[in-house]
Design a protein that fits this description.
By secondary structure, the chain is α+β, with helices and mostly antiparallel strands. The protein is built from 2 helices and 5 strands, in the order ββββααβ. The protein starts with a strand and ends with a strand.
């Protein structure tokens, strides 16, 4: 079972169904029906297992206007649902976190909890 790690304790993680945006994986991309372990800071001594979730939806999204027409552009509402003020705030976070402003195609993953750690 693969790990989906978060660096912040986003409010969305308290919801029964939540979304997250992830870059496509070169080895084996995320897929609908996949069960994942959800962790907070998985590679840190402060790590904490949050629970197990299943991916119930996967959609391609873009952050940059350059890809408009190829895949849907991430909306401000989607960015807000993900914990950001708007799409630009999400883009700035991704640049700061990953330094990949030129790679703007994402998977929008929708997950639901199977088992939450208490």
């Amino acid at each position: 079972m693969r790990i989906l790690s978060f660096t912040e304790k986003w409010q969305k993680l308290d919801d029964d169904v939540f979304t997250t945006f992830r870059y496509p994986r070169a080895d084996k991309d995320w897929y609908v029906g996949e069960e994942v372990q959800v962790w907070f800071k998985q590679r840190s001594p402060l790590r904490e297992k949050i629970g197990i979730a299943v991916i119930i939806g996967k959609e391609r999204r873009a952050l940059n206007e350059y890809h408009r027409g190829c895949v849907p552009l991430t909306t401000d509402k989607e960015a807000q649902d993900d914990g950001f003020e708007n799409r630009i705030g999400m883009k700035l976070f991704m640049i700061k976190r990953y330094g990949l402003d030129y790679i703007s195609l994402f998977n929008k993953l929708t997950l639901t909890w199977i088992k939450e750690e208490k």
